[in-house]
Amino acid sequence: MVHESVFRTQDLPAADRFEAWIQRMGRTHAPMQLSSEHAADYDGSQRAILLGDVTVWPATFDPLVFRRTPRLIRASDPEAYHLSLLLKGEGAASWGSSRQAVYTMNDFHVSTSSRPFEIHTGADPVTIVGVELPRAQVPLPGRHADQVMGRRISATEGIGALLAQFLLRLAADTSRYRPADGPRLATVVTDLVAAAFAHALDADPSLPPESHHRTLALRVKAFVRRHLADPELTPATIAAAHHISRSHLYRLFRAEGLTVASYIRDQRLEHARRDLLDPARSTTPIHVVAARWGFPRAAEFTRAFRTAYGLPPSELRARGHPRPGPPGDAPPSGRGRLANDTAPRSGASW
User: Fold this and answer.
1) Which residues of the chain have pLDDT under 70?
2) Max CA separation in the chain (angstroms)
3) Which of 51, 90, 166, 174 has its CA 20 to 30 A from that of 304?
4) How many CB atoms lie within 10 A of CB 239?
């Protein structure tokens, strides 16, 4: 079979996992600044399928922010294109203030190690099939190929679908290929990538008008999740950090049926819920957990928690097997209770 390597953060101690993932991503693509709200116990797995100068890497990993900065580019540039076929989750990318893009399932994201970028994935883990290939091997003028950054390449139609089907078939089973097949497979990948680039350049270059708003919304949500413990996290500070007005910020959330305040509250509650169920934090007083996630007043936290989850935090911790929290960015729901739940008790245990 062709050469492969497998990496799983779960094979390492929790304290070492995120740093190891940073190193793995740096070797796979190029050195980047990575950050994640899950850095304390990061979950990521990757298979690297080596096809000579081309690497195909299926991966699943926790939410992440990727930053490739001018300084990192000056220090090390493999001069490669990167494509990610997004199979699960969502993401948003920006190349400065002039070019932005949103990616959802069955889209290809395209970037290059030679240009600064910032990528935010959504609140849930993502699954991708990544491709790394030298820029010099793509038979298009560099200035033209670089224009593909920010274009949407669909994996469900046209040449993008051909590329996606090839990558998925390759990733599903490499046992039938010999090491000598690697360069031949790399040629097929390169030709399909070049054809997909050329097709995207022939298409209408304009992006849907909602792309900018969705990109900004994902960036704002990532900012909120990174600053949940900050007592100064308010609509005013969030808007200022993103150089927009508060009314613009409110419209971004209203378009998704949310308010800024409810999103902050629900994310704080969900993080507090996770801490209350974490065996490693079983001796941490509940009021300390609450304060860590922006609830300095015990009674306020208890009321909000009971409304969201149908029982007080002390009871949830005692049971240790709560109803799963809301997926992704969906706010916690107060409807329903845990299986066999009884009427909630009044008061709180702090």
Assistant:
1) 97-98, 140-144, 202-212, 214-215, 321-350
2) 69
3) 90
4) 19
pLDDT in tens, 167-211: 999 999 999 898 889 988 998 998 889 888 888 876 544 444 454
What are phi and psi for residue 102, nearest 5 degrees?
-115, 140
In the block, tokens 């900004």 appear at 216
Inter-axis angle of helices 210-226 and 260-277, nearest 10 = 40
d(CA 115, CA 83): 14
Count the helices and strands in the chain (H runs, E runs). 12, 12
DSSP-assigned beta bridge partners for residue 45: 8, 60
Paired with 51 in beta bridges are: 54
Q: Which residue has the tokens 């609830």?
A: 295
Burial classification of residue 347, based on how many CB atoms lie within 10 Å of its CB (0-12 exposed, 13-18 middle, 19 or more buried): exposed
Report pLDDT for 214: 64
Q: What does the pLDDT look like over 76-119, one tens digit per residue? A: 999 999 999 999 999 999 887 667 888 889 999 999 999 999 99
Q: Which residues is 8 bridged to in the sheet?
A: 45
What's the pTM value of the predicted model, to 2 decimals? 0.62
Indicate the length of the chain as a whole number. Answer: 350
**What type of residue sits at position 166?**
F
Cβ neighbour number for residue 269 with a 10 Å cutoff: 26
